[in-house]
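Dear Dr. V.,

Thank you for agreeing to look over these. As mentioned in my earlier message, I'm a first-year student in the group and I'm still getting used to reading structure tokens, so any feedback on how I've presented them would be very welcome. I ran two proteins. I've put each sequence directly above its structure. The first is here:
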Amino acid sequence: MNRTFRIAALCAVVMSYTAGSAAVAQQTAHVLPKQFGKWTLGDGPADEPKLAFPNNPVLQEAGVKNVELERYSDGKKWLRIWLEEYRDPSSAYQAYTSSLDPKLNASTVGPLTAAGDDRLVALVGNRMVRVLWIKNATDADLKLLLDSVKEKADRTPLPPVRSYLPEEGLIQGTQRYALGPAGFAAALTALNEKRFSSITPEIGFATGAEAMLASYQSEGNKSQALLIIDYPTPQIAEQRLHHIQGVLSANPALAGATVERKASLLSLVLSPVSAEAAAKLRDDIHYQTSVTWNEPSQTLTDPPWLLVVKGIFVGTLAFCGIAIVMGIAFGGVRVLTKRLFPGKVFDRPEDIEVLQLGLSGKRIDPRDFY
């Protein structure tokens, strides 16, 4: 298949994917490299089946922006690589978990990679890479590919709810993240828990809810699924708690399942093996809450009491000394002025008045007092 036909096929796949969605995703700049290591773009073997992209509601809900389907050759062998670019890492994480299954094991190529059945699934920021025929490549080759895809990728942190899942008894490949009804419905189907689909409208994804599901091995070679839902605030979580409880109590097929709230997190054990097993699974959830209060603070401390007493005495003596000096100065100036200029500045007769009762006929002369 020549280059022109491959590009036409790629456009057809992208158009098929976007058909029926509310908005058509426009393909952005080419992300996959022309070459990594010894691998270069090639047309692929003539007998290879036609490329097809999974057009499903989960990926539509995640909001794919760019799809690239390419083949690479080292001259003898081939690799088929699909790249999907989403609006943010959380959306890409929904698409990534929807591609997992117990047949895939954690890969040594890098974090958030899973390999098995001759294929690799990797999450790199807001981009997801699927590689087929990985037996033809080495880990070093695949690392070069992911390093190239990592350039200019959105590496915003992934949703925290993914880290709340307990590790003990987790069946790898069953993890499912959902940020909307389509992702949640697909997760229930993958975990064989479709009978819980009636709670989907009550979760409230429109309020910012994020759901994480996984299956866990329990005693007696039995398994049970854990659903945790993270909300923006405890108030929203409390409101949704009552909605979900109403659905569970009204549906006999969901008997045995209970929902609990811890701060802004709801937990629900689907099809619990026993009440004790469900309680233990809930206790293992990695979720801690803390309330902090930021108050104004100061680093000053009271000085020793001896230093305080010393300051009091020194201040008192200084004040007394200043008062004595000022008194002597004021009095000395007044006395000196009266001696040098008697009756001229202070105690001038014309300025002195004496209140008299007039009990005698003799008028008092103010000068008699000085």
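The second protein is here, in the same arrangement:
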Amino acid sequence: MTLSVASVDMRTRVGDVLLGAPVMTASGTAGHGSELASYVDLSSLGAVVVKSVSVDPWPGNPAPRLLPLQEGMLNSVGLQNRGVAEWLREELPPLAATGAKVVASIWGFTCAEYHDAARAIADARKGSLPGVDAIVAVEANISCPNVEDRRQMFAHSSGGVKEAVSAAVEGLGGHLPLWAKLSPNVTDITEMAGAASAAGASAVTAINTVMGMSIDPANGQARLGGGGGGLSGPAVHPVAVRAVYDCRAAFPALPIVGVGGVNTGEEAAELIAAGADAVQVGTATFADPRAPARILAELSRWCAQHGVSSIDQLKGRAHDRR
């Protein structure tokens, strides 16, 4: 049965957060604010997930930072940002003025830094800073080196996940939901999802980049200034599908945001069928800044063509047909 595109209900929920559409941007690929506004009606997307911010400004990694590959790219940007206070004061207001819903992304080297970054956003949300009402959730990027644990990634152990997520949740003080962005570079991502949920995360985002590296054999030097980097783009899409599928199978009621190599509406539908409540579009935006809107339109058409009358009807379909 073919439906009209207009008849498809594209609304979705990620926990307590109601989104008008299931497609968002992905952190680190859409800037800190309204950079994509000249290409996309940001209010038409589910939300804009901004580039991760920390308590204090951070310079990031040395250049070169990006390496295009045949099936995606390696990045070693290193989470450059001007700090959460500057973001709240300078970058958030013009983004909120577009009418977009905003998911703030935070990171830190210590649990205290996660707490303090989250607390700064919660305090702003309680105050009168322009644009703060647009923030609907905070996503904790926990794929960062934990200097309190020999620089092991928070996301690479259940203990690290619990500590970072608990700190961020405490910092938010119940004023905003916390989404935990999980790393695929683990033996069992469902263990990490369970740890995040137990620590108070309202949802998990799966996945972050896959660790990779490129070396110039002529001189033996890494092609990125920071050495290794994160692989993203089409190459990681099957990894994301598997991660979302496994997390949904393990936790039927846990809200999940799927991200990884989404470049078409059908690929967005695939992640939703695997168990995602919404998806994020990242690397595709570098090649085409209109990609999130294009993919949302393609997803709407795909649903209409396949007789899917609502996103809820598509969610977790793969688990109904085992």
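From my reading of the second output: The first helix runs from residue 84 to 96. The first strand starts at residue 12 and ends at 14. Does that match how you would interpret it?

Kind regards,
E.
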